[in-house]
Amino acid sequence: VAGAITLGLLLWWLWREGRSSTPLLTAMLALLAAPELWYSALYFNSTILGMPLLAGALLLVRGGNGLARGAVAGLLAGAAILMRLDFILICPLLAMTAWPKGKGLHQPIAVAAGVVAALLIGFASGLLDLAQIMQVQAASSAEIRDRAGQYGWDFAAKLFVASISLSPVGWLFLIAGTPLVLLHALRRRDGRAILWAIATLPALYPILSILSPKYVLPLIPFLLLLFVRAQEQAMVCLAKRLHGFTRAVLAVAALAPIVLSVSLDRQAPFLLPRLAPVKPVGTHDGPRGYGGYLWQMMATDAVEPSLGQQGSAPPLAEQLLSG
Q1: Which of 10, 245, 257, 294 has the fewest beta carbons closer than 10 A?
Q2: Are the beta carbons of 79 and 50 closer than 8 angstroms?
């Protein structure tokens, strides 16, 4: 449920952010660039529970400019932090999103106040337990340290995990589109691009010890906005007669990995096209690959819960749905 709400809210937000003649298509192509958004709805994890709150906060701060909107968005972001502490790393990006060009700082300040208020409520009510946070952090650090010592779990393995955080078209948007967006900002003499880059740095921290693409989920919505802007700038650079063809190529490139996969190989031709990944990338949350997302998601959804908390999740969901 949380995953479906997240996808719906993000699609709405990106569609509303669009400045091209096809904002819905642009938003859908961006959303297809982050497969972990779809994966994370299929297994027990705390990150996906906070994602609808973050998506709601983004809708609020981009829907207008006011203290009330900023405060409520901050409360939602604070609630997401109570779900998973990692969300605190994207607060600078949320503040930048809440600061429209040419407007004052009252809305970002309201966002910060809302986040602080939510955390204080969490401390006062016992929802945020510092001792438990330290215990979880110590356990996570120990797990990362143990994994780092295992054979095959080296820096290269982490790079592979990071590489599957986006689909092939997502990497195209990031690598080819980011320079276009930055060049556009320089032409407009928009110094806020530097602030955006600085605000992104804390959100990149989980990549240093990444065991699963799930770690970058809080950053994904902001990347999706970048992908929307990248598509728009690409259309500005291309002749108008090429717009339809370019959109069709991007649509095929975004849709093909749903059912087709490419695995990397050390021997020529170095790529192994198949339906499902021949050489999947191992992660903390199961195997992933470059494409074949439908088949992998079906396999992920079919896995039986293994932990005590996971085993109790399906009955709890049935109770909630049945009232």
Answers
A1: 245
A2: yes
Are 89 and 54 in contact by the 8 Å Cβ rule? The answer is no
Helix (H, G, I), strand (E, B) or coil at 60: helix
- Residue 283 to residue 43: CA distance in whole angstroms: 14
Q: Confirm whether pTM is higher than 0.85.
A: no
Nearest-angstrom CA–CA distance, 298 and 300: 5
Could you tell me the two tokens for 90? 């994207």
Cβ 82 vs Cβ 128: under 8 Å: yes
In this predicted model, what pLDDT tens digit does every residue of 158-197 receive, in sequence order?
A: 788 888 889 989 999 999 999 999 998 888 888 788 899 9
More confident of the two residues 322 and 32 = 32
Residue 294 CA: distances (Å) to CA of 114, 222, 290, 298, 299: 39, 24, 12, 6, 9
DSSP 199-256: HHTGGGGGGGG-SSGGGGGGGHHHHHHHHHHHHHHHHHHS-GGGHHHHHHHHHHHHHH
Closest CA relative to residue 227, chosen from 253, 257, 263, 205: 253
The secondary structure element, H or E, covering residue 7 is helix 2-17
- Write the CA distances from 312 to 5, 306, 318, integer angstroms: 22, 10, 10
- CA 92 from chain centre, in angstroms, equals 15
How many CA atoms lie within 13 Å of 276's alpha carbon, on the beta-carbon side?
8
Residue 264's Cβ-count burial label (10 Å; 0-12, 13-18, 19+) is: middle
Backbone angles phi, psi at 101, to 5 degrees: -60, 135
Task: Please enumerate, as own/partner, the contacts of 150-159 that have beta carbons within 8 Å and a separation of 24 or more.
Answer: 157/282, 158/209, 158/210, 158/211
Token output for 115 = 């986040």
Give pLDDT tens digits for 64-106: 778 899 999 999 999 999 888 889 999 999 999 998 877 788 9
